[in-house]
Design brief:
Elements lengths: L3 E2 L10 H7 L15 H21 L6 E4 L2 H16 L5 E5 L4 H12 L3 E5 L9 H7 L4 E7 L11 H11 L3 E5 L11 H4 L3 E5 L10 E5 L14 H4 L7 H16 L1 H22 L3 E3 L10 E6 L4 H10 L2 E2 L15 H5 L4 H5 L1 E5 L6 H20 L2 H7 L6
Parallel strand pairs: 1-11, 3-4, 3-5, 5-6, 6-7
Antiparallel strand pairs: 2-8, 7-8, 9-10, 10-12
Helix pairs in contact: 1-9, 2-9, 3-4, 10-14, 11-14
The chain binds pyridoxal-5'-phosphate (PLP).
The site of pyridoxal-5'-phosphate (PLP) has 15 residues, from helix 3.
Length: 395
């Protein structure tokens, strides 16, 4: 069997259609979109068209879309830029304990600059506690940043309800990190009622190194990247034309294929979850069963380490993620699972499986068979497991 990729929450390949649209912008349309000649005008055409594609996908105006160098940059910009712009009104920010490091670490950095941050708790399934949000909102709250869908456990937050609560109880801005949501669920900035929203192309079959921030018209936030007059003088740096063009096509395709994509992934996910739950002992599904990203499954395998599972599955040609890709490498259990109250040992044995458009049911079946083998092998070597089973001969 060919190698199997179950890590689409970390990144996706660039689709053929997207690549084809990008290629001319590396070569004949290589101009700088700020040049005054025909080369520049060709580049501008590509960028303008992509901006309209992104705007249409998110249901906003093209001049509310600002291209950035990544989802991380867009998150940094939304949070730092609004904090700086509004600090005379207050210095309190609200986010959740399960945000992506791009949001969490931007907030932590602002704490060092004298801002105060409330990190909202979540319930056992990974949903932000709305009563806690209501309690946390204050007169001096200037920003609330809550993600649309969690990248580790797939919990889809009630962002529309959150926007209502924020707007009803405060003058705070509302930023949404929608990086995992685009292509999987409908993302409509008007329907949500948010002021800012982050997207990133490489999570929906576009290229890496390109993101965008929606900033509602009329809202002024400070710049993060200072330079030339690009992005209507809000984000300096020569436009990455091929990537921008690729992002435009990728988001249009993602929205057009949303239903078939999520149906396809859901089938794989649900078969995967039910087979693992019925065929592998001592497992626990992390995250919700309802309002979950269609392509996400996350399991804790008791008595063994996620890293060892990952390594052995990799040897079998199956690519998965332990914790989140951003925090793996460290032995800290995932901050998301900890916030959900998963105990440290179970947290260490967790693996995220995230499916995509090119995955098949055969791959799911093959992977489950391999997982059974790997988990059973590792447990035979696990002192914890042998104690549990009453067999101390291997300890
Ligand atoms: C991947 C991801 C990001 C970061 O986007 P990059 O473009 O990789 O910097 C931010 N938030 C979430 C929820 C993500 O999954």
């Amino acid at each position: 069997m060919d190698r199997i990729y179950f890590d689409h929450a970390a990144t996706t390949p660039v689709s053929k259609n997207v690549l084809e649209k990008m290629l001319p912008y590396f070569t004949e349309n290589f101009g700088n979109s700020h040049s005054q000649h025909s080369f520049g005008r060709n580049a501008v055409k590509g960028v303008d068209f992509a901006r309209s594609q992104v705007a249409k996908a998110l249901n906003c105006l093209p001049n509310e879309i600002y291209f950035t160098g990544s989802g991380t940059e867009a998150d940094n910009w939304a949070i730092k830029g609004s904090a700086w712009a509004r600090q005379s009104r207050g210095k309190h920010i609200i986010t959740s304990q399960i945000e992506h490091p791009a949001v969490l670490n931007s907030c932590k950095w602002l704490e060092k600059q004298g801002f105060e941050v409330t990190y909202l708790p979540v319930d056992g399934e990974g949903f932000v506690k709305l009563d806690e949000l209501e309690k946390a909102l204050r007169k001096d709250t200037i920003l609330v940043s809550i993600m649309f869908a969690n990248n580790e456990v797939g919990a889809i937050q009630p962002v529309r309800k959150i926007a209502e609560i924020v707007k009803k109880n405060s003058n705070a801005l509302f930023h949404v990190d929608a990086v995992q949501a685009v292509g999987a669920v409908k993302v409509d900035v008007k329907e949500i009622g948010c002021d800012m929203l982050t997207v990133s192309a490489h999570k929906f079959y576009g290229p890496k190194g390109i993101g965008a921030l929606f900033i509602r018209n009329g809202l002024k936030i400070d710049k993060l990247i200072i330079g030339g007059g690009q992005e209507r003088a809000m984000r300096g740096g020569t436009s990455n034309t091929p990537a921008i063009v690729g992002m435009g096509q990728a988001i249009e395709d993602a929205v057009n294929n949303l239903e078939s994509y999520s149906e396809h992934c859901k089938k794989l996910r649900d078969t995967f979850i039910s087979r693992v739950e019925s065929e592998v002992p001592y497992v626990k599904l992390n995250g919700p069963r309802e309002n979950r990203l269609p392509n996400n499954a996350n399991f804790s395998f008791e008595f063994i380490e996620g890293e060892s599972i990952l390594y052995r599955l990799d040897l079998a040609g199956i690519a998965v993620s332990s914790g989140s890709a951003c925090s793996s490498g460290s032995l800290e259990p995932s901050h998301v699972l900890l916030a959900m109250g998963v105990d440290v040992v179970m947290g260490h044995g967790s693996i995220r499986f995230s499916f995509g458009k090119d995955n098949t049911m055969e791959q799911v079946d093959y992977a489950v068979d391999k997982i059974k083998e790997v988990v059973s092998t590792l447990r035979q070597m696990s002192p914890l497991f042998n104690l549990k089973e009453g067999d101390v001969s291997n300890v």
